[in-house]
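Final report, results section. Input specification for complex C-07:
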Amino acid sequence: MGGPIESLLGKLRIMAKQGFGIILLAVILAVLGNTVRPRALPLFAPPLWKQVVGSSRQALTIEEAEHLFLCNKAVFIDARSPELYAEGHIRGARNIPEGSGEKLMREALSNLAMDSVLIVYCDDETSAMSVSLSRKLAAVDRARKIRTLLRGWDLWVANELPIESGAGPVEEEG
Amino acid sequence: MKSFLAFRRLSMAGIRIFIGLLFLYASVDKILYPGAFAEVVYNYRILPDEMIHFTAVVLPWLELLLGLFLIFDLWLPGAVLLANALFMVFFASMAFNMARGLDIECGCFPQDGASASLVYYLVRDGFFLFLSILAGFLLLSGTIAWQKKPNAVK
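Structure output:
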Protein backbone atom coordinates (compact mmCIF):
# COMPACT_ATOMS: atom_id res chain seq x y z
CA MET A 1 0.00 0.00 0.00
CA GLY A 2 1.51 3.35 -1.00
CA GLY A 3 1.36 6.66 0.80
CA PRO A 4 -0.04 9.93 -0.50
CA ILE A 5 3.11 10.72 -2.52
CA GLU A 6 2.94 7.40 -4.31
CA SER A 7 -0.76 7.90 -4.89
CA LEU A 8 -0.07 11.33 -6.41
CA LEU A 9 2.72 9.95 -8.57
CA GLY A 10 0.39 7.19 -9.75
CA LYS A 11 -2.19 9.77 -10.78
CA LEU A 12 0.43 11.89 -12.54
CA ARG A 13 1.63 8.82 -14.43
CA ILE A 14 -1.91 8.15 -15.65
CA MET A 15 -2.25 11.83 -16.64
CA ALA A 16 1.01 11.75 -18.60
CA LYS A 17 0.11 8.51 -20.39
CA GLN A 18 -3.31 9.77 -21.40
CA GLY A 19 -1.92 13.16 -22.38
CA PHE A 20 0.65 11.49 -24.61
CA GLY A 21 -2.12 9.38 -26.14
CA ILE A 22 -4.18 12.46 -26.97
CA ILE A 23 -1.17 14.21 -28.53
CA LEU A 24 -0.40 11.14 -30.63
CA LEU A 25 -4.00 10.93 -31.82
CA ALA A 26 -4.00 14.66 -32.66
CA VAL A 27 -0.79 14.34 -34.69
CA ILE A 28 -2.17 11.37 -36.65
CA LEU A 29 -5.47 13.12 -37.38
CA ALA A 30 -3.73 16.39 -38.27
CA VAL A 31 -1.31 14.74 -40.69
CA LEU A 32 -4.10 12.71 -42.30
CA GLY A 33 -6.35 15.77 -42.48
CA ASN A 34 -3.57 17.80 -44.05
CA THR A 35 -2.81 15.08 -46.57
CA VAL A 36 -6.35 14.91 -47.92
CA ARG A 37 -6.76 18.69 -48.09
CA PRO A 38 -6.84 20.09 -51.63
CA ARG A 39 -4.05 22.54 -50.74
CA ALA A 40 -2.00 20.75 -48.11
CA LEU A 41 0.59 22.73 -46.18
CA PRO A 42 4.11 21.32 -46.44
CA LEU A 43 4.59 20.31 -42.80
CA PHE A 44 8.27 21.01 -42.31
CA ALA A 45 8.95 23.57 -45.02
CA PRO A 46 9.41 27.22 -44.10
CA PRO A 47 6.36 29.31 -45.02
CA LEU A 48 6.27 30.48 -48.64
CA TRP A 49 6.83 34.13 -47.80
CA LYS A 50 10.13 33.20 -46.15
CA GLN A 51 11.28 31.38 -49.25
CA VAL A 52 10.30 34.10 -51.67
CA VAL A 53 10.79 37.49 -50.11
CA GLY A 54 13.24 36.89 -47.32
CA SER A 55 12.42 37.69 -43.75
CA SER A 56 9.62 40.20 -44.26
CA ARG A 57 6.13 38.72 -44.28
CA GLN A 58 5.03 39.91 -47.71
CA ALA A 59 3.46 37.07 -49.62
CA LEU A 60 0.19 35.36 -48.89
CA THR A 61 -0.75 31.85 -49.86
CA ILE A 62 -3.79 31.44 -52.09
CA GLU A 63 -5.57 29.91 -49.12
CA GLU A 64 -4.90 32.95 -46.95
CA ALA A 65 -6.00 35.28 -49.75
CA GLU A 66 -9.19 33.26 -50.23
CA HIS A 67 -9.88 33.42 -46.50
CA LEU A 68 -9.47 37.21 -46.43
CA PHE A 69 -11.62 37.51 -49.56
CA LEU A 70 -14.42 35.42 -48.04
CA CYS A 71 -14.24 37.35 -44.77
CA ASN A 72 -14.35 40.60 -46.72
CA LYS A 73 -11.21 41.77 -44.98
CA ALA A 74 -9.15 42.51 -48.06
CA VAL A 75 -9.09 44.77 -51.09
CA PHE A 76 -7.40 43.20 -54.08
CA ILE A 77 -5.18 45.40 -56.22
CA ASP A 78 -4.61 44.30 -59.80
CA ALA A 79 -1.14 45.40 -60.92
CA ARG A 80 -1.67 44.47 -64.57
CA SER A 81 -2.54 46.75 -67.46
CA PRO A 82 -6.09 48.19 -67.73
CA GLU A 83 -6.66 46.00 -70.81
CA LEU A 84 -5.86 42.76 -69.01
CA TYR A 85 -7.83 43.94 -66.02
CA ALA A 86 -10.88 44.56 -68.22
CA GLU A 87 -10.59 41.05 -69.67
CA GLY A 88 -10.91 39.52 -66.22
CA HIS A 89 -9.92 40.20 -62.62
CA ILE A 90 -10.58 39.05 -59.07
CA ARG A 91 -14.10 40.06 -58.12
CA GLY A 92 -14.08 43.53 -56.57
CA ALA A 93 -10.40 44.16 -57.35
CA ARG A 94 -9.15 47.68 -58.08
CA ASN A 95 -6.74 48.31 -60.91
CA ILE A 96 -3.55 50.21 -60.15
CA PRO A 97 -1.21 49.33 -63.02
CA GLU A 98 2.40 48.83 -62.04
CA GLY A 99 4.24 51.96 -63.13
CA SER A 100 1.48 54.30 -61.96
CA GLY A 101 2.60 57.63 -60.59
CA GLU A 102 2.75 58.39 -56.88
CA LYS A 103 -0.18 60.81 -57.10
CA LEU A 104 -2.43 58.13 -58.58
CA MET A 105 -1.39 55.61 -55.95
CA ARG A 106 -2.01 58.10 -53.16
CA GLU A 107 -5.49 58.90 -54.52
CA ALA A 108 -6.33 55.23 -54.95
CA LEU A 109 -5.25 54.41 -51.40
CA SER A 110 -7.17 57.31 -49.93
CA ASN A 111 -10.42 55.76 -51.22
CA LEU A 112 -9.83 52.46 -49.47
CA ALA A 113 -10.74 51.57 -45.89
CA MET A 114 -7.74 51.59 -43.55
CA ASP A 115 -8.68 48.34 -41.83
CA SER A 116 -8.59 46.30 -45.04
CA VAL A 117 -5.53 44.35 -46.09
CA LEU A 118 -4.39 45.30 -49.58
CA ILE A 119 -3.49 42.23 -51.63
CA VAL A 120 -1.55 43.00 -54.78
CA TYR A 121 -1.49 40.49 -57.59
CA CYS A 122 -0.54 40.13 -61.24
CA ASP A 123 -0.15 37.28 -63.75
CA ASP A 124 3.59 37.44 -64.09
CA GLU A 125 5.29 34.07 -63.48
CA THR A 126 7.88 35.78 -61.27
CA SER A 127 5.27 38.12 -59.75
CA ALA A 128 7.73 40.96 -60.33
CA MET A 129 4.94 43.47 -61.07
CA SER A 130 2.96 42.78 -57.91
CA VAL A 131 6.05 42.71 -55.68
CA SER A 132 7.21 46.00 -57.19
CA LEU A 133 3.79 47.64 -56.82
CA SER A 134 3.50 46.38 -53.23
CA ARG A 135 6.76 48.05 -52.34
CA LYS A 136 5.74 51.31 -54.01
CA LEU A 137 2.35 51.33 -52.28
CA ALA A 138 4.02 50.59 -48.94
CA ALA A 139 6.37 53.52 -49.52
CA VAL A 140 3.44 55.82 -50.31
CA ASP A 141 1.46 54.78 -47.25
CA ARG A 142 3.49 53.06 -44.56
CA ALA A 143 0.51 52.57 -42.26
CA ARG A 144 -1.14 50.18 -44.71
CA LYS A 145 -1.08 46.44 -44.38
CA ILE A 146 0.00 45.43 -47.87
CA ARG A 147 0.55 41.87 -49.00
CA THR A 148 1.40 40.19 -52.26
CA LEU A 149 -0.30 37.19 -53.78
CA LEU A 150 2.44 35.59 -55.83
CA ARG A 151 1.29 34.25 -59.21
CA GLY A 152 -2.02 35.58 -57.97
CA TRP A 153 -4.18 35.69 -61.06
CA ASP A 154 -3.15 32.22 -62.27
CA LEU A 155 -3.70 30.66 -58.83
CA TRP A 156 -7.02 32.44 -58.37
CA VAL A 157 -8.33 31.16 -61.72
CA ALA A 158 -6.90 27.67 -61.16
CA ASN A 159 -8.76 27.46 -57.86
CA GLU A 160 -11.99 28.60 -59.53
CA LEU A 161 -12.42 31.52 -57.18
CA PRO A 162 -14.78 34.40 -58.04
CA ILE A 163 -13.75 36.63 -60.92
CA GLU A 164 -15.44 39.26 -63.03
CA SER A 165 -14.67 41.22 -66.17
CA GLY A 166 -15.12 44.79 -67.36
CA ALA A 167 -13.33 48.07 -66.76
CA GLY A 168 -14.66 48.51 -63.22
CA PRO A 169 -13.14 51.05 -60.87
CA VAL A 170 -9.92 51.63 -62.84
CA GLU A 171 -7.69 54.24 -61.25
CA GLU A 172 -6.71 56.77 -63.88
CA GLU A 173 -3.97 59.30 -63.76
CA GLY A 174 -5.68 62.62 -63.14
CA MET B 1 -20.07 15.97 3.27
CA LYS B 2 -22.30 14.54 0.58
CA SER B 3 -23.35 18.01 -0.58
CA PHE B 4 -19.68 19.10 -0.63
CA LEU B 5 -18.81 16.16 -2.86
CA ALA B 6 -21.76 16.94 -5.10
CA PHE B 7 -20.57 20.56 -5.33
CA ARG B 8 -17.05 19.44 -6.26
CA ARG B 9 -18.44 17.11 -8.90
CA LEU B 10 -20.67 19.84 -10.32
CA SER B 11 -17.81 22.36 -10.34
CA MET B 12 -15.58 19.91 -12.14
CA ALA B 13 -18.28 19.18 -14.73
CA GLY B 14 -18.92 22.90 -15.26
CA ILE B 15 -15.24 23.73 -15.70
CA ARG B 16 -14.45 20.84 -18.04
CA ILE B 17 -17.47 21.52 -20.27
CA PHE B 18 -16.69 25.26 -20.38
CA ILE B 19 -13.02 24.69 -21.27
CA GLY B 20 -14.03 21.94 -23.69
CA LEU B 21 -16.38 24.25 -25.54
CA LEU B 22 -13.67 26.93 -25.64
CA PHE B 23 -11.25 24.52 -27.29
CA LEU B 24 -13.87 23.33 -29.77
CA TYR B 25 -14.75 26.91 -30.72
CA ALA B 26 -11.07 27.84 -31.05
CA SER B 27 -10.18 24.85 -33.22
CA VAL B 28 -12.72 24.92 -36.05
CA ASP B 29 -11.56 28.07 -37.85
CA LYS B 30 -7.92 27.04 -37.51
CA ILE B 31 -8.59 23.60 -38.99
CA LEU B 32 -10.43 25.16 -41.92
CA TYR B 33 -7.75 27.80 -42.58
CA PRO B 34 -4.35 26.44 -41.49
CA GLY B 35 -2.56 28.87 -43.79
CA ALA B 36 -4.04 31.86 -41.98
CA PHE B 37 -3.29 30.26 -38.61
CA ALA B 38 0.32 29.70 -39.73
CA GLU B 39 0.64 33.45 -40.00
CA VAL B 40 -0.58 33.84 -36.41
CA VAL B 41 1.95 31.24 -35.26
CA TYR B 42 4.68 33.01 -37.21
CA ASN B 43 3.83 36.36 -35.66
CA TYR B 44 4.67 35.03 -32.21
CA ARG B 45 8.29 34.82 -33.45
CA ILE B 46 9.09 31.91 -31.15
CA LEU B 47 9.25 28.81 -33.32
CA PRO B 48 11.83 28.06 -36.01
CA ASP B 49 10.45 28.52 -39.54
CA GLU B 50 10.43 24.78 -40.18
CA MET B 51 8.00 24.19 -37.31
CA ILE B 52 5.43 26.87 -38.20
CA HIS B 53 3.33 24.80 -40.60
CA PHE B 54 3.54 21.68 -38.43
CA THR B 55 2.33 23.62 -35.40
CA ALA B 56 -0.39 25.34 -37.41
CA VAL B 57 -1.64 21.96 -38.62
CA VAL B 58 -1.39 19.93 -35.39
CA LEU B 59 -2.37 22.45 -32.70
CA PRO B 60 -5.97 22.94 -33.94
CA TRP B 61 -6.53 19.17 -34.01
CA LEU B 62 -5.15 18.91 -30.52
CA GLU B 63 -7.58 21.62 -29.42
CA LEU B 64 -10.46 19.82 -31.14
CA LEU B 65 -9.63 16.50 -29.47
CA LEU B 66 -9.11 18.17 -26.11
CA GLY B 67 -12.48 19.86 -26.43
CA LEU B 68 -14.22 16.58 -27.19
CA PHE B 69 -12.38 14.64 -24.49
CA LEU B 70 -13.20 17.28 -21.87
CA ILE B 71 -16.85 17.59 -22.82
CA PHE B 72 -17.45 13.83 -22.96
CA ASP B 73 -15.29 13.05 -19.93
CA LEU B 74 -12.88 10.78 -21.80
CA TRP B 75 -9.34 10.36 -20.51
CA LEU B 76 -10.10 13.31 -18.29
CA PRO B 77 -6.82 13.35 -16.33
CA GLY B 78 -4.77 13.46 -19.54
CA ALA B 79 -7.07 16.07 -21.08
CA VAL B 80 -6.84 18.31 -18.01
CA LEU B 81 -3.05 17.99 -17.96
CA LEU B 82 -2.85 19.01 -21.62
CA ALA B 83 -5.31 21.88 -21.12
CA ASN B 84 -3.07 23.20 -18.34
CA ALA B 85 0.01 22.78 -20.48
CA LEU B 86 -1.57 24.56 -23.47
CA PHE B 87 -2.88 27.50 -21.46
CA MET B 88 0.53 27.85 -19.80
CA VAL B 89 2.27 27.85 -23.18
CA PHE B 90 -0.20 30.42 -24.58
CA PHE B 91 0.15 32.62 -21.52
CA ALA B 92 3.96 32.41 -21.49
CA SER B 93 4.17 33.13 -25.24
CA MET B 94 2.04 36.25 -24.93
CA ALA B 95 3.86 37.44 -21.81
CA PHE B 96 7.21 36.88 -23.56
CA ASN B 97 6.14 38.95 -26.56
CA MET B 98 4.73 41.67 -24.36
CA ALA B 99 8.00 41.80 -22.42
CA ARG B 100 10.02 42.26 -25.61
CA GLY B 101 7.61 44.87 -26.97
CA LEU B 102 6.00 42.94 -29.81
CA ASP B 103 2.36 43.84 -30.28
CA ILE B 104 0.95 40.60 -31.64
CA GLU B 105 -2.52 39.35 -32.39
CA CYS B 106 -3.61 36.56 -30.03
CA GLY B 107 -5.28 34.51 -32.77
CA CYS B 108 -6.84 32.22 -30.19
CA PHE B 109 -10.43 32.59 -31.36
CA PRO B 110 -11.96 33.45 -34.74
CA GLN B 111 -13.07 36.94 -33.71
CA ASP B 112 -9.71 37.96 -32.23
CA GLY B 113 -8.33 40.89 -34.14
CA ALA B 114 -5.61 43.45 -33.80
CA SER B 115 -8.00 45.87 -32.07
CA ALA B 116 -7.73 44.38 -28.56
CA SER B 117 -4.55 44.85 -26.55
CA LEU B 118 -2.17 42.11 -25.51
CA VAL B 119 -3.01 42.86 -21.88
CA TYR B 120 -6.62 41.91 -22.54
CA TYR B 121 -5.53 38.62 -24.10
CA LEU B 122 -3.18 37.93 -21.19
CA VAL B 123 -5.91 38.54 -18.62
CA ARG B 124 -8.34 36.36 -20.57
CA ASP B 125 -5.84 33.54 -20.95
CA GLY B 126 -4.87 33.91 -17.30
CA PHE B 127 -8.51 33.31 -16.37
CA PHE B 128 -8.68 30.18 -18.53
CA LEU B 129 -5.40 29.00 -17.00
CA PHE B 130 -6.80 29.56 -13.53
CA LEU B 131 -9.85 27.43 -14.40
CA SER B 132 -7.76 24.60 -15.79
CA ILE B 133 -5.46 24.65 -12.75
CA LEU B 134 -8.55 24.48 -10.58
CA ALA B 135 -9.75 21.49 -12.60
CA GLY B 136 -6.36 19.86 -12.10
CA PHE B 137 -6.55 20.47 -8.37
CA LEU B 138 -10.07 19.03 -8.13
CA LEU B 139 -8.92 16.03 -10.10
CA LEU B 140 -5.77 15.29 -8.14
CA SER B 141 -7.36 15.86 -4.76
CA GLY B 142 -10.45 13.77 -5.48
CA THR B 143 -11.42 10.39 -6.81
CA ILE B 144 -13.79 11.46 -9.58
CA ALA B 145 -11.63 10.61 -12.60
CA TRP B 146 -9.94 7.55 -11.21
CA GLN B 147 -12.98 5.33 -10.90
CA LYS B 148 -11.99 2.65 -13.39
CA LYS B 149 -9.43 1.26 -10.95
CA PRO B 150 -10.70 2.39 -7.58
CA ASN B 151 -8.15 0.31 -5.69
CA ALA B 152 -5.21 1.13 -7.90
CA VAL B 153 -4.88 4.76 -6.90
CA LYS B 154 -6.32 6.05 -3.70
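Chain A has two domains: 1-36, 48-164. The helical segments of chain A are 4-36, 48-53, 62-70, 82-87, 102-110, 128-140, 152-158. This concludes the modelling results for the funded period.
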